[in-house]
Structure formats: C-alpha cells, structure tokens
C-alpha cells in the first residue's frame, strides 16, 4: 500500500516523540538552549511573538526562524501602538509596528526596553516576547542594561521572554547576570528563536495531552464483519467490502456494487444512476489503472457494456493469473482536492495513521505525515499544518478550500479504526473534498492475520 511503502521507521519515531510531548533536538547546543528556556519560562499560550530591537539584521533572522516553526509576529493592539507614540518611545520616523525598532535610542537608553516589554505584557495580542540588544560592553556612552528590572516585568505577566544578547564570546558574567534575573539569554538570534519555537512545541503538546478525548465504540455489526473476514483466511479485501467497513464506521464513500457480468453491471448502474465508474475487483491486482482496470465517466448502457467487455479482456491479457471476482460499479465523484488518509500496523510502533496530499502522485511527492493511533483532534490539526502543501487545502488557483473541521474528524476516525480493529494496512486514496463534503473514491484494506 502507499501507506506501508512510506512508513519508514524514522518518521514513525518522530511522530511518537511529538505525541508523547518529547522534543527532538539536533545538537548539544540546542539541547542546552531548550532546557534553559523550558526551565525558566511559563508555557506559551499561543504562537504570536512581540519583538523589541534596536538593530534590524538579527530581527530579520529571528523572524524567518520563527515563521519556519509556525510562530508569527503579533499584530500589536491599538493601545500599544498609541502608547509607543504618545510616550515618545520611538524615533519620530519609526512606525509603531512589530518588530518594535527602538533604533539608536534603545541602544543608548536601556530603560526603553523595560518600558516596551511592559507594553508587550499588557497586550492581549502578544503571547511571548523576543528582545534583541547589543551588550555595549566597554562603550562609555552606554549604561548597564537594567536586567533585574527587565526580569521583574517578565514574571509580572506570565508570558515567556527570551533575549538575544549580542556580547563577546567571553562575556560569561553578563549571561550569568541574565540567568540571575530569571531571563533566558542567547548570544545569537538563531539560537533564541529556535529555543522559543521549541518552547511553543512543548506547550502545544502539553495542552493537547490535557485535552485528550476519544470516540465512542464501533457498531457491533462492524466489529463482527471485520472478524468474519479475518477468520475466513482471505485478508485482502475487495474494494466494495472495504467500503462497507468504512461506511459502518461513519465514513462517507462512493456507492459500490459488485457485478459479475454485463447484465448485473447494467442493473447496478440503473440503481446508482449515470454517470458511473467501473473498477476491476481482484485480490491479485493492487494498482487497477495500470492494467486497464478503471474506466470513468460512463454515461449510458451502451458505453457501459462496451467498457465492461474491454476491461475484462484487458485485465485477462495483462494479468492472466489474476483471480477476477467481477467489476465494481460506482457513482462518479465531482472533481475536488484529493488527499490520502491511511494506516499501517508497524511491528514496533503498532497502529499508525498517515495523512497527506493524495491521488496518483502520492508516492512521488511523499508529502505525508504520521502519528501513532489513536489520535486526538489536536493531533489531526497538527498533521494538516505539517504537510508542505498545506496551502493547497486553503484553495489554490480557483479551487475551493477544504472543510478542515470535517478533515480532522475523518483523520481521527481512521486512526480509531486502526487502533480498535485488526487491520494491517488501510489506504483511502483518493479522498475527494468537494462541495464542502468529502467522498472516499478508492480504498485498499488488508486484514491482520492475528488479532
């Protein structure tokens, strides 16, 4: 299956770490930086960051890193902007925007940092603050930074604060002073922004674990059907059988009727209504379109009969050893955004759920993410945000946005199928989102040989 071929061990371990609230770091330096901010900061309640600086370069670097990790520059509220102007905290040519640029005034008058930090603490649009300042060590025109006063404001509002302290590499006493003031300080913008991003990840995982909720049990008919298939010794299900299981679990699929001859196919098409699609039904054929086993957009009986015969002939020629159960007749699905949701039972990690962009390009693009099943709604939202093509779900070049709340419910539901039922592999691909709903157009399911 697509899911099985892409579920490499490293991706599964990373998914497990995220769900357990564990943070992965790449270097010893990042380990120490992250430990510092976790030990010295309250949880981050959102992803909106206020920034105070007197130099542009590090602020640009920090902004890029924050954006890479899903944090955004806060939109300061009107009170904050008016106060910045009325209290003359900014140069006359500086707009009251975020990052708050104190220019040379902030370098020479360090009290401005404390005053602006107090504004950030009061601003409901700001969840955390990153302050960037050059030490000024050895400059007779610069007074010492009021670190203790800065630290007092930090604790007053219960919001995380990190400092980029541009000091010589041997300025250990200054970094010790920041520690004593209760503020995590870092020598570069990259390290400070990365630490703040890791704090955000840790805070989100803690919140998700506290709000964990699960779905009610499955209908008795569904459980009995899966165990019946398992006890029969035929573990690879035909498409219409797999769709019946999904339907009983409350997942919307195409209507699918198995026909063993032309007349049965015609009768099925009349029940479903034209246009219809035909798909070969065989446990020995995985990629049906590769052998001429899929015909779409059949509009009438004559076309259906002709397509039925051609499909049977094509499959018999290309895969002569395949066991043909018949042909599935299905309703056509309107065009829309195609995604994949699947699952696999890993021998070490256990049941796993996968989500990504779907269709025929899924294994080429490999834009997918994994989680250990079962997952929560928060887990599903994270999965949606993690794929590289997440913006496609918001509507792209005229396509309609995907109903993300419905998508979250779908991913959670499939994760519970993988967790509660003896299923080895499950591919729902493509799932087509159209007209504010979705339809599972194709599904592949393999039952586990053991319970």
Automatic annotation (TrEMBL):
<dbReference type="GO" id="GO:0005524">
    <property type="term" value="F:ATP binding"/>
</dbReference>
<dbReference type="InterPro" id="IPR016102">
    <property type="entry name" value="Succinyl-CoA_synth-like"/>
</dbReference>
<dbReference type="GO" id="GO:0016874">
    <property type="term" value="F:ligase activity"/>
</dbReference>
<feature type="domain" description="ATP-grasp">
    <location>
        <begin position="243"/>
        <end position="279"/>
    </location>
</feature>
<dbReference type="GO" id="GO:0046872">
    <property type="term" value="F:metal ion binding"/>
</dbReference>
<dbReference type="InterPro" id="IPR011761">
    <property type="entry name" value="ATP-grasp"/>
</dbReference>
<comment type="similarity">
    <text>In the N-terminal section; belongs to the acetate CoA ligase alpha subunit family.</text>
</comment>
<dbReference type="Pfam" id="PF13607">
    <property type="entry name" value="Succ_CoA_lig"/>
</dbReference>
<keyword id="KW-0067">ATP-binding</keyword>
<keyword id="KW-0547">Nucleotide-binding</keyword>
<dbReference type="Pfam" id="PF13549">
    <property type="entry name" value="ATP-grasp_5"/>
</dbReference>
<dbReference type="InterPro" id="IPR051538">
    <property type="entry name" value="Acyl-CoA_Synth/Transferase"/>
</dbReference>
<dbReference type="InterPro" id="IPR032875">
    <property type="entry name" value="Succ_CoA_lig_flav_dom"/>
</dbReference>
<keyword id="KW-0436">Ligase</keyword>
<dbReference type="InterPro" id="IPR013815">
    <property type="entry name" value="ATP_grasp_subdomain_1"/>
</dbReference>
<protein>
    <recommendedName>
        <fullName>ATP-grasp domain-containing protein</fullName>
    </recommendedName>
</protein>
């Amino acid at each position: 299956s697509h899911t099985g071929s892409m579920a490499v061990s490293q991706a599964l371990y990373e998914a497990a770490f995220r769900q357990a609230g564990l943070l992965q770091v790449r270097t010893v330096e990042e380990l120490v930086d992250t430990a510092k901010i976790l030990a010295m900061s309250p949880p981050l309640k959102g992803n909106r960051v206020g920034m105070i600086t007197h130099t542009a370069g590090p602020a640009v670097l920090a902004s890029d890193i924050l954006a890479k990790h899903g944090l955004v520059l806060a939109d300061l509220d009107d009170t904050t902007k008016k106060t910045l102007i009325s209290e003359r905290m900014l140069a006359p040519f500086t707009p009251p925007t975020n990052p708050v640029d104190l220019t040379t005034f902030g370098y020479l008058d360090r009290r401005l940092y404390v005053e602006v930090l107090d504004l950030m603490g009061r601003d409901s649009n700001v969840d955390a603050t990153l302050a960037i300042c050059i030490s000024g060590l050895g400059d007779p025109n610069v007074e010492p930074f009021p670190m203790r006063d800065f630290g007092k404001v930090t604790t007053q509002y219960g919001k995380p604060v990190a400092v980029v302290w541009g000091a010589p590499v041997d300025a250990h006493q200054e970094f010790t002073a920041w520690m004593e003031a209760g503020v995590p300080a870092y020598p570069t913008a990259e390290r400070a922004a990365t630490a703040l991003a890791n704090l955000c990840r840790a805070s989100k995982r803690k919140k998700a674990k506290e709000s964990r909720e699960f779905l009610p049990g499955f209908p008795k008919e569904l459980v009995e059907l899966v165990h019946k298939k398992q006890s029969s010794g035929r573990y690879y299900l035909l498409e219409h059988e797999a769709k019946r299981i999904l339907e009983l679990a409350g997942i919307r699929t195409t209507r699918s009727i198995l026909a063993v001859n032309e007349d049965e196919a015609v009768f099925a098409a009349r029940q479903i209504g034209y246009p219809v699609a035909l798909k070969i039904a065989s446990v020995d054929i995985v990629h049906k379109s590769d052998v001429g086993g899929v015909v779409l957009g059949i509009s009438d009986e004559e076309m259906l009969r002709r397509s039925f015969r051609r499909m049977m002939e094509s499959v018999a020629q290309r895969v002569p050893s395949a066991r043909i159960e018949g042909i599935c007749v299905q309703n056509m699905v309107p065009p829309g955004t195609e995604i994949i949701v699947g699952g696999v039972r890993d021998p070490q990690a256990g049941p796993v759920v996968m989500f990504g962009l779907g269709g025929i390009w899924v294994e080429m693009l490999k834009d997918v993410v994994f989680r250990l099943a079962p997952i929560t709604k928060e887990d599903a939202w994270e999965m949606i945000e993690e794929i590289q093509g997440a913006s496609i779900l918001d509507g792209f070049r005229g396509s309609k946005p995907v109903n993300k709340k419905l998508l979250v419910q779908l991913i959670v539901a499939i994760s519970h199928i993988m967790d509660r039922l003896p299923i080895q592999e499950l591919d729902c691909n493509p799932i087509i989102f159209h007209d504010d709903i979705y339809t599972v157009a194709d599904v592949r399911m393999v039952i586990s040989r053991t319970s």
